Amino acid sequence: MIYWNTPRFIIKWFSHLEWHYSRKEKTIYLTFDDGPTPGITQQVLDLLDKYNAKATFFCLGRNVDRHRDIFHEIIARGHSTGNHTYSHLKGWKSSVKAYAHDVNLASKYIPSKLFRPPYGRIRHVQTRYLSKEFRIIMWDVLSHDYNRKISQKICLKSVLKSTKNGSVVVFHDSEKASKNMLFVLPRLLEHFSKKGFTFSRIE
Ligand SMILES: [Zn+2]
Q1: What is the pTM of this model?
Q2: Which of these is catalytic: 20, 84, 144, 172?
Q3: 61 alpha carbon to ligand 1 midpoint, in Å?
Q4: Residue 40, in any domain of the structure
Q5: Which residue has the higher pLDDT, 93 or 30?
Q6: Active-site residue flag, 124
């Protein structure tokens, strides 16, 4: 079973995290995880510029460490950034201490008060600890762009169908996801721009 929208019981269970924004505004919040990635992040930035769209990039500390120039370009072009840990840790498999250490390490490279857990997998005890310092940003639409069993067309169709006012949509500016992401992103921008939507970053 593939969920494109986050199930309601999960949103209720973790109601102290941020899953989407006002359903009254025609605004969509695009987010890109796991970058910056040379060659791919720049293509995303160019597509966003073309539609005057702003977005939020949840970067890995280790990638910012390697590609600081791209990270600075993300900020210079008006987007927000968030912490996605240093080494893409799985919350379910890490102690609070080890998880906090990895997040703090990423903070040295990513000056942001936004945090997104890798895989969306985080334990209550970790959210309590991180909430002291961060706003934890989840999503209501997962693009599954990284899933190679999902075709570009199905990915596009499902993301368009699942996205609505106030949605937070997850993409990945990574090698693995680039085939589907770079197919879906320009079409999504075109589709929703025509319908009068704007694309904002999470402040
Ligand atoms: Zn990730």
Answers
A1: 0.96
A2: 172
A3: 11
A4: yes
A5: 30
A6: no
Is 33 annotated in the active site? yes
Confidence of residue 10 (pLDDT cuts 50, 70, 90): confident
144, 64, 84, 101: CA torsion to nearest 10: 150
CA 111 vs. chain centroid, Å, equals: 16
For residues 104 and 61, give the distance between their C-alpha atoms in angstroms, rounded to a whole number: 9
Does the pLDDT value for residue 1 go beyond 90? no
Q: Which of 20, 33, 79, 102 is catalytic?
A: 33
pLDDT tens digits for 115-131? 999 998 888 888 988 99
Give the chain's radius of gyration (CA, Å).
16
For residue 52, the model assigns a pLDDT of 98
Quick check: is 3 in a domain? Answer: no
- Residue 174 Cα, ligand 1 centroid: separation in angstroms? 9
Residue 2 lies in a domain: no
Please check the confidence at residue 58 and state whether its pLDDT lies above 90: yes
Q: What is the DSSP letter of 7?
A: P
Q: How far is the CA of 84 from the centre of ligand 1 (A)?
A: 7
| Domain housing 158 | 8-199
> What is the 3-class SS of 24-54, one letter each residue?
CCCEEEEEEECCCCCCCHHHHHHHHHHCCCC
